[in-house]
Amino acid sequence: MRSMVEGAQRSAHPRRPLHHAAARRGPPPRTGEERMTDTRTRRLRALADLVRSGQFVSQEEVTERLAALGFAVTQATVSRDLEQLGAVKVKRGGVLCYALPDQLAAADWSTSRLERILREWVIGIEAAGRLLVIRTPPGSAHLVASAIDHAQLPEIAGTVSGDDTLFVAIHDNEDIAALRARFERMAGQEKVIYA
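Request: output the structure for the sequence above.
Response:
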């Protein structure tokens, strides 16, 4: 019996470990989440290229062009994607169309975005010492703080945001009343004083 076992061991091919076989077949199958992320990344790149190359005046036009490129998206998805890319509507040749931040002068884009966000999200602005206290709807303070930070206004040292309130720290030599009035104008809340 011993000779049969020895013979079987000698004639058998040595087996490779399982991990070698897996390496020859390529990477393991991707999860649904990974495929979705890849598709989303490709869609965002395509959208950015479309916005840079053409004058799209509506999200419907962008949706149609993405569909022609093989991306099945809704207008709501395009809206979210444009927002994530930081796309804004600008006037070019008398026509409003989408543009990306790298297509605009940095100051123009930041100011336009800041004004839009202040107008949409700010409920109230008041001064408190060297701080501006800005109130927003619940869960929105970080949006306003981020827009202020990205605007890189020379008067502002920085922002701190909570859920519905943010503090804007003003540099010592700056006129806080003038900055408050400027933010109120941008937010559409300027106070009219009748004499």
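The domain at 106-186 is CATH 3.30.1360.40 (Gyrase A; domain 2).
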